[in-house]
């Protein structure tokens, strides 16, 4: 069997640059959460009717899909990541996927998602109607993700990315409110905060609908207090998310997982925030 090609050295440089963008005071910042969402929105305009077209192709930026209501407010991060792609002379599609994976592991507690490069850029807009909405029913979300190749466990795990998110446009009066109480870290508080939200958090109706869904709901609730379980399921589903629409999947790409930063354990961050807390 032929040896897999090594990750191009430029991605180590890209990774170092992104760390400077995504990390503030030891936690993931607004650019990091926007990059995670941007990766979802670039890839998520794909379903199984499209075959090896669309999906993770950079069209979020190159076709300015970020100007459409479904992908706002992603214009700022889209332009920042376009500048990264241009600076390092790599594809926009790869930059979006790599940046999403980088931002996830930059968040303390975040898993390492196996990440590949070699995607082709495309400036034709994808069908943004294939993106989930903040008011979607549990049934519609289940069908939407099933048509992308994800099952009930995948969906419950992927929506957990809201652990690091903030909303700005669903309710402008509460712009900037987070979807769980610890948006700077990658933890499972989102799952308990969705059903019992503490003050200052904003819960999407779609997340409530998934938590109460007869098929997805038990998987959703199964991640409460299950950090390791969730990280494993999320990393597997996100790896596949970042390959949607890519011809041949990972077979024709180069593995650049080793260019990502090392994961930061959650308990390390908790001790930094409270040096008197016990070591687990």
From TrEMBL:
<feature type="domain" description="Plant heme peroxidase family profile">
    <location>
        <begin position="32"/>
        <end position="163"/>
    </location>
</feature>
<comment type="similarity">
    <text>Belongs to the peroxidase family. Ligninase subfamily.</text>
</comment>
<dbReference type="InterPro" id="IPR044831">
    <property type="entry name" value="Ccp1-like"/>
</dbReference>
<protein>
    <recommendedName>
        <fullName>Peroxidase</fullName>
        <ecNumber>1.11.1.-</ecNumber>
    </recommendedName>
</protein>
<feature type="binding site">
    <location>
        <position position="55"/>
    </location>
    <ligand>
        <name>Ca(2+) 1</name>
    </ligand>
</feature>
<keyword id="KW-0349">Heme</keyword>
<dbReference type="InterPro" id="IPR002016">
    <property type="entry name" value="Haem_peroxidase"/>
</dbReference>
<keyword id="KW-0408">Iron</keyword>
<dbReference type="InterPro" id="IPR019794">
    <property type="entry name" value="Peroxidases_AS"/>
</dbReference>
<feature type="active site" description="Proton acceptor">
    <location>
        <position position="41"/>
    </location>
</feature>
<keyword id="KW-0325">Glycoprotein</keyword>
<keyword id="KW-0106">Calcium</keyword>
<feature type="binding site">
    <location>
        <position position="59"/>
    </location>
    <ligand>
        <name>Ca(2+) 1</name>
    </ligand>
</feature>
<dbReference type="GO" id="GO:0034599">
    <property type="term" value="P:cellular response to oxidative stress"/>
</dbReference>
<feature type="binding site">
    <location>
        <position position="42"/>
    </location>
    <ligand>
        <name>Ca(2+) 1</name>
    </ligand>
</feature>
<dbReference type="GO" id="GO:0046872">
    <property type="term" value="F:metal ion binding"/>
</dbReference>
<dbReference type="InterPro" id="IPR001621">
    <property type="entry name" value="Ligninase"/>
</dbReference>
<feature type="binding site">
    <location>
        <position position="57"/>
    </location>
    <ligand>
        <name>Ca(2+) 1</name>
    </ligand>
</feature>
<keyword id="KW-0575">Peroxidase</keyword>
<dbReference type="GO" id="GO:0042744">
    <property type="term" value="P:hydrogen peroxide catabolic process"/>
</dbReference>
<feature type="binding site">
    <location>
        <position position="187"/>
    </location>
    <ligand>
        <name>Ca(2+) 2</name>
    </ligand>
</feature>
<keyword id="KW-0479">Metal-binding</keyword>
<feature type="binding site" description="axial binding residue">
    <location>
        <position position="162"/>
    </location>
    <ligand>
        <name>heme b</name>
    </ligand>
</feature>
<feature type="binding site">
    <location>
        <position position="163"/>
    </location>
    <ligand>
        <name>Ca(2+) 2</name>
    </ligand>
</feature>
<dbReference type="GO" id="GO:0020037">
    <property type="term" value="F:heme binding"/>
</dbReference>
<dbReference type="GO" id="GO:0004601">
    <property type="term" value="F:peroxidase activity"/>
</dbReference>
<feature type="binding site">
    <location>
        <position position="182"/>
    </location>
    <ligand>
        <name>Ca(2+) 2</name>
    </ligand>
</feature>
<feature type="binding site">
    <location>
        <position position="180"/>
    </location>
    <ligand>
        <name>Ca(2+) 2</name>
    </ligand>
</feature>
<keyword id="KW-0560">Oxidoreductase</keyword>
<keyword id="KW-1015">Disulfide bond</keyword>
<feature type="disulfide bond">
    <location>
        <begin position="28"/>
        <end position="107"/>
    </location>
</feature>
<dbReference type="Pfam" id="PF00141">
    <property type="entry name" value="peroxidase"/>
</dbReference>
<dbReference type="GO" id="GO:0000302">
    <property type="term" value="P:response to reactive oxygen species"/>
</dbReference>
<feature type="site" description="Transition state stabilizer">
    <location>
        <position position="37"/>
    </location>
</feature>
<dbReference type="InterPro" id="IPR010255">
    <property type="entry name" value="Haem_peroxidase_sf"/>
</dbReference>
């Amino acid at each position: 069997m032929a040896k897999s090609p090594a990750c191009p050295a430029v991605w180590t440089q890209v990774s170092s640059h992104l760390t400077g963008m995504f990390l503030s005071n030891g936690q993931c910042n607004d650019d990091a959460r926007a990059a995670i969402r941007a990766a979802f929105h670039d890839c998520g305009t794909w379903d199984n009717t499209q075959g090896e077209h669309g999906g993770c192709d950079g069209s979020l930026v190159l076709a300015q899909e970020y100007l459409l209501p479904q992908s706002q407010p992603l214009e700022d991060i889209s332009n920042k990541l376009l500048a990264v792609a241009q600076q390092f002379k790599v594809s926009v599609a790869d930059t979006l996927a790599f940046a999403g994976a980088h931002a996830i592991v930059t968040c303390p507690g975040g898993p390492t998602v196996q990440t590949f490069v070699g995607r082709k850029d495309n400036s034709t807009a994808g069908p943004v109607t294939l993106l989930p909405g903040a008011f979607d029913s549990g049934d519609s979300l289940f069908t939407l993700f099933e048509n992308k190749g994800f099952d009930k466990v995948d969906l419950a795990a992927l929506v957990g990315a809201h652990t690091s998110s903030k909303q700005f446009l669903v309710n402008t009066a509460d712009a900037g409110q987070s979807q769980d109480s610890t948006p700077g870290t990658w933890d499972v508080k989102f799952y308990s905060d969705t059903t019992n939200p503490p003050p200052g958090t904003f819960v999407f109706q779609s997340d409530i609908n998934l938590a109460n869904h007869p098929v997805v709901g038990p998987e959703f609730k199964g991640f409460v207090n299950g950090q390791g379980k969730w990280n494993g399921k999320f990393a597997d589903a996100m790896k596949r998310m970042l390959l949607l629409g890519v011809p041949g999947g990972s077979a024709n790409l180069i593995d650049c997982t080793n260019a990502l930063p090392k994961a930061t354990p959650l308990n390390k961050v908790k001790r930094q925030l409270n040096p008197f807390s016990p070591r687990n």
